Recover the amino acids of this structure.
């Protein structure tokens, strides 16, 4: 791809070779605009329905939507059996690789049989349609099998990320009213087996509704056992019949609950349902990634324990009959080239990951990816936070060899699937911007009163029409659903909680959560904008910026930076240089009050920087809840760096 410079910075024209054979062309936008509901109806026909719907959308009681009203389907059948019936049983669904290097290959036929066995096992344990089943697992094939087995019998799965604490698990078991927990003895992380069962024992001890715990043997470590409650997966599942006739469920039958943190301490159980969800994840996966089921090797390098894993490791890829890679462990185990080794080994053609990983590899240096053959890659994706232009360009050059377009996909646990993204072969790419609403999606940038803003302005991101994979409610709390998302601008407008800017060409730039937008002397400054400026300096690998309360300016900008390996100097001079760099880059108003050089930043397991904790540090407060951090010792390291007075 050749590069050209426009008024907003660099642009990369859509690669023509890809465009010639792309799954969707430029006319897809016009088609969706002509008749949005007819467009989604067409996409729903990509699935196999046991019964057609009577109505595409019932929006008579906003914000409670019903999509494909009256339609019936089985989600697992759509992900598995229908591909086997069409003669693709021998196609690989997953090339799975454990962190220690053990591998398993699952074809569509094998996966279908495994899911049928697990479905029969769940039925034997008395699980019924509508029951909630918690899945607290490492990244192993049984995790996917368990999710699909639930879907197959109409049970509602609730995957809790394996790194979460017993407390987090217990509160979710309680909130969802789970009857069964599926877990493992442990999984491999950073070169060692880590345990899962002790947290389950602790959490289930406090959850009287849980009748059984089904345990997969993965690491062979010793586990405590509660007779009558605990069962080995291999004892119960392996002896079941590999046949099971799927029942068709209503399009609005609940598929899963995924907990996500909100502004209060109590996590929100985001509820997704069946027909609309599967329609949009399947279509976006096919269109955004130009997925060619016969030739692509697709890899979402994320954890199944968050929504990206649900939509783009499990449901989207399987609905599209993709061949995927699934990897259990961390990118640096046993060496920092592990991911690139996997791309080379499996000939990965499409890689989807998060900016934080890209910046981490950037910090390690380009020699690491350069040591592997990455020429199989043809398309890259990014998700989870804004990707700053420097990281975009680095990803493009050092992973994508300058030839792979990058799809910067904006979406949320709540939206279920991609909402704002470029399309491959269609969109000329602008590094750092997620660019355009996906066809059939209505996204706008509005001011505080909800008035739509024109190009070249900054405001709040809203979604003005319901979409098929939207959340249906917060589990057990319809009021909170309405209050959180649909009250700021009325019950027809979804408030995403993200700041956004439209540039002069109509591209949408996401500016981070609105609670991450700082107010310095009455000026709105995005933490992301300052971070992006800092990482644009050659000495900085990663940066996190928070607004700390300031008696004169309202908020003052405090930055935490990790230097690149080559930049040793962390003295006053460098700090001054960086402050001036930001002032020059964005304007004097954005000059950080304070910059602290640190070794690590506190991150959640899904890779988001926990600015809340950094704000506590910057404002010299007791640290808040650190249970969702990947490594809670990071905060001690950061506090040690602080001057005693601050
Ligand atoms: C942020 C992850 C900018 C955003 C799928 C959103 C992004 C939140 C992007 C949802 C992106 C996600 N550009 N920001 N491409 N993707 N975000 O629920 O703030 O874990 O509201 O879903 O991540 O995070 P969640």
């Amino acid at each position: 791809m050749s590069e050209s410079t426009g008024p907003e910075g660099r642009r990369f024209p859509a690669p023509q070779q890809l465009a010639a054979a792309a799954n969707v062309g430029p006319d897809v936008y016009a088609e969706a605009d002509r008749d949005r509901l007819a467009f989604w109806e067409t996409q729903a026909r990509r699935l196999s329905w046991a019964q057609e719907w009577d109505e595409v959308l019932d929006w008579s009681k906003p914000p409670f939507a019903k999509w494909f009203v009256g339609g019936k389907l089985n989600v697992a059948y759509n992900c598995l059996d229908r591909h086997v019936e069409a003669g693709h049983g021998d196609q690989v669904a997953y090339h799975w690789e454990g962190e220690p290097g053990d591998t398993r290959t699952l074809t569509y036929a094998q996966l279908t049989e495994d899911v049928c066995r697990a479905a029969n096992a769940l039925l034997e344990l008395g699980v019924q349609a509508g029951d909630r089943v918690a899945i607290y697992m490492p990244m192993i094939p049984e995790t996917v099998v368990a999710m699909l087995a639930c879907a197959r019998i109409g049970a509602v799965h609730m995957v809790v990320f394996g790194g979460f604490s017993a407390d987090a698990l217990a509160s979710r078991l309680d909130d969802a009213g789970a009857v069964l927990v599926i877990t493992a003895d442990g999984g491999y992380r950073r070169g060692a087996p880590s345990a899962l069962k002790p947290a389950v024992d602790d959490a289930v001890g406090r959850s009287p509704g849980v009748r059984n715990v089904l345990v997969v043997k993965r690491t062979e470590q010793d586990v405590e056992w509660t007779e009558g409650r605990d069962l080995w997966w291999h004892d119960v599942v392996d002896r079941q019949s590999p046949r099971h006739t799927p029942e068709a469920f209503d399009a609005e039958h609940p598929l899963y609950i995924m907990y996500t943190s909100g502004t209060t301490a109590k996590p929100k159980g985001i509820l997704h349902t069946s027909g609309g969800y599967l329609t949009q994840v399947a279509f976006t996966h096919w269109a955004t990634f130009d997925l060619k089921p016969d030739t692509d090797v697709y890899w979402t390098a994320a954890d199944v324990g968050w929504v990206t894993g649900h939509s783009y490791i499990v449901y989207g890829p399987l609905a599209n009959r993709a061949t995927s890679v699934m990897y259990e462990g961390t990118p640096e185990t046993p060496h920092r080239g592990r991911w690139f080794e996997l791309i080379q080994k499996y000939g990965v053609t499409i890689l989807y990951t998060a900016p934080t990983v890209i910046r981490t590899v950037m910090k390690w240096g380009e020699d690491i990816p350069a040591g592997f053959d990455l020429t199989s890659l043809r398309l890259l994706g990014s998700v989870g936070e804004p990707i700053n232009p420097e990281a975009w360009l680095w990803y493009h050059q050092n992973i994508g060899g300058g030839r792979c377009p990058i799809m910067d996909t904006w979406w949320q646990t709540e939206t279920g699937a991609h909402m704002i993204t470029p399309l491959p072969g269609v969109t000329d790419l602008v590094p750092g911007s997620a660019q355009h609403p996906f066809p059939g999606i209505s996204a706008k940038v509005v001011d505080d009163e909800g008035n739509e803003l024109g190009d070249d302005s900054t405001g709040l991101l809203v979604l003005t029409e319901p979409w098929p994979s939207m959340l249906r409610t917060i589990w057990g709390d319809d009021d909170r659903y309405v209050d959180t998302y649909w009250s700021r601008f009325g019950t027809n407008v979804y408030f995403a909680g993200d700041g956004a800017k439209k540039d002069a060409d109509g591209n949408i730039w996401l500016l981070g959560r609105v609670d991450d937008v700082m107010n310095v002397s009455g000026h709105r400054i995005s933490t992301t904008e300052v971070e992006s400026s800092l990482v644009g300096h050659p000495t900085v690998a990663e940066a996190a910026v928070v607004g700390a309360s300031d008696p004169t300016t309202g908020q003052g900008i405090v930055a935490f930076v990790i230097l690149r390996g080559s930049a040793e100097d962390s003295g006053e001079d460098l700090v001054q240089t960086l402050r001036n760099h930001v002032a020059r880059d964005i304007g004097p108003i954005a000059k950080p009050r304070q910059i602290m050089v640190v070794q690590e930043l506190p991150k959640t397991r899904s890779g988001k920087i926990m600015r809340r904790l950094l704000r506590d540090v910057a404002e010299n407060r007791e640290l808040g809840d650190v249970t969702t951090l990947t490594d809670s010792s990071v905060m001690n390291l950061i506090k040690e760096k602080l001057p005693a007075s601050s």
User: Anything to note?
Assistant: The mean pLDDT is 91. Residues 108-124 form the longest helix (17 residues). Residues 9-432+447-500 form a domain with the Rossmann fold fold (CATH 3.40.50.12780). The radius of gyration is 24 Å.
